[in-house]
Specification:
CATH class: Alpha Beta
Order of helices and strands: HHEHEHEEHEHHEEHHHE
Number of strands: 8
Number of domains: 1
Shape: globular
Mean pLDDT: 94
Largest sheet: 8 strands, mixed
Strand content: 15-25%
């Protein structure tokens, strides 16, 4: 089985503070395809962003992650049980879940082993949703600078799995009955420059760059953005993260 990678324990508090949350409209879309609301598994939950949203619709939400530090930052709710577990090997019973969700994480998994585990723990007709997002967009001038930072400054520091994000999960193995979402979805936020800086600091490639070079590449990038006048210190910009969603049904 593929070796586990934990790239997000280092700045777990920042991850909780600066990562954008998923829109409720996406949850409503997923729930259209769920017939029973007894149990949901939010796999690789991180700080529990999806688990928190799903808790209002299910009797029980099991939220797992390999990072204890991430789980410490999660919002604790009475019907959400957080536990440390790798995605490909859990202690859950067979045929247990009505919905399985994975937000911005499935690209790190051992795909074959994870899909086998999904088939084992899913009830017949269980729904599954793989959710991800790539680069943010604001305006042409900023987007060009960010693309340069992404591909050149820290380009060599991305793990190989990042290609699945760049390909919008189009090449992620998905051996389940596909369901076409009724619309496209995006995360929309309004950020100041400090929120942008905090978000970029959560990138796994940034942390790898810091380890290799002993300096933070985000700070000079932010200074460049400010000095160019593209994003002013007092300015709030609308930021959009297009989502890619693979929805499916597991028949047994």
């Amino acid at each position: 089985m593929k070796q586990v990678k934990d790239n997000f324990s280092v700045r777990s508090a920042d991850y909780s503070k600066f990562r954008p949350e998923y829109p409720k409209e996406l949850i409503h879309e997923i729930l259209k395809h769920v017939s029973n609301h007894e149990r949901c598994w939010d796999c690789a939950t991180g700080n529990g962003q999806l688990a928190k949203l799903l808790s209002g619709y299910f009797e029980h939400v099991e939220a797992t992650d390999i990072s204890e530090k991430q789980l410490i930052e999660a919002i604790h709710l009475p019907n959400v049980l957080y536990s440390i577990s790798r995605a490909e090997q859990t202690a859950f019973p067979d045929s247990y879940f009505d919905l399985i969700t994975i937000g911005q994480a499935v690209h790190w998994f051992d795909q074959e082993a994870f899909n086998q585990e999904v088939k084992r723990v899913a009830k017949d007709e269980c729904a599954i949703a793989l959710i991800g997002y790539g680069l943010m967009f604001t305006d042409d001038a900023f987007d060009e600078l960010l693309w340069s930072f992404y591909t050149e400054t820290i380009g060599d520091c991305w793990d190989a799995e990042r290609r699945f994000i760049d390909e919008a999960y189009s090449t992620i193995p998905f051996p389940f009955e596909p369901i076409t979402p009724s619309q496209d979805f995006a995360i929309n936020v309004d950020w100041n420059i400090n929120q942008l800086q905090g978000y970029l600091g959560t990138w796994s490639s940034v942390n790898k760059f810091i380890k290799a070079n002993g300096l933070d590449p985000v700070e000079p990038f932010i200074n460049k953005v400010l000095s160019s006048g593209i994003w002013l210190q007092v300015e709030v910009k609308h930021v959009r993260f297009p989502l890619f969603v693979k929805l499916g049904r597991i028949s047994k």
